[in-house]
Amino acid sequence: MTKKYWLVLILFFITACAPWAKVGGDYREESQNYSVTLPEGWMKSNTVDGLLVTRDGVLLQTIRVERFKIDQDLKHTRKKYSQNMPPQEMADVTIDNIKSDPLITNFKLLESSPATLSGIPGSKIVYEFKTKEGQLRFKCIHYGIMSGEWIYGIRYVAAARHYFDKDVQTFETVSQSFRLLKP
Fold first, then answer.
1. Who is most buried in 121, 128, 133, 175, counting CB within 10 A?
2. Domain residues for 9?
3. How many CB atoms lie within 10 A of CB 132?
4. What is the mean pLDDT of the chain?
5. Domain CATH number, residue 106
């Protein structure tokens, strides 16, 4: 059997076993210190490292909210975040971590700019990539901020051809609703 078949089969079982529930409206994650307004009719799965929502399936589009400690080792780079790091330097570390992921190929940075999330200065990164199998091109928008000892990120990943444009405004609405409960 091909690697592609196994990848699809594994992703199917991972998502099929996840506790999916229809969402819409205000969502508070007290343990992660944030709230966000989720789009109506999408499905959510709370995962170990954050919130994941999709409308048509995780292989087509996802919105993800994550939080992790500033001093936590990153999966794909030796670079590190540090307290009071300027937003552009924070973006550079994030970009390096993404580019170094062995499952991502043909990485193309489209934008890296300042942005505000929950009233906190941060960064916006827009990029395209293909999976290691190289069959499908994805596009991503990633907002990141630092608050206290935590890094918060909200990102939208979708198939570049059809789904990205279809739901990008929904993502922007969700990202604008993101709030820290205790800044």
1. 175
2. 3-180
3. 14
4. 90
5. 3.40.1000.10
pLDDT in tens, 31-42: 999 999 999 999
pTM: 0.86
Tell me the pLDDT band of 9, cut-offs 50, 70 and 90. Answer: very low
Q: Identify each DSSP E strand in the chain by its residue range.
A: 21-22, 25-29, 34-38, 43-47, 50-54, 61-69, 104-117, 120-131, 137-147, 150-159, 179-180
Q: Give me the numbers of helices (H) and strands (E) for the chain, helices first please.
A: 3, 11
CA atoms of 142 and 126, how far apart (whole Å): 6
Q: What is the pLDDT of residues 85-112, one digit of tens each?
A: 999 999 999 999 999 999 999 999 999 9
- Evaluate whether 137 touches 146 at the Cβ level (below 8 Å): no
User: What amino acid occupies position 174?
Assistant: V
Query: Tokens 């979708």, residue?
Result: 158
pLDDT over 60 at 81, yes or no: yes
Q: How far apart are CA 98 and CA 54, in angstroms?
A: 21
Sign of CA dihedral 155, 157, 160, 161: negative
| 77 three-state secondary structure | coil
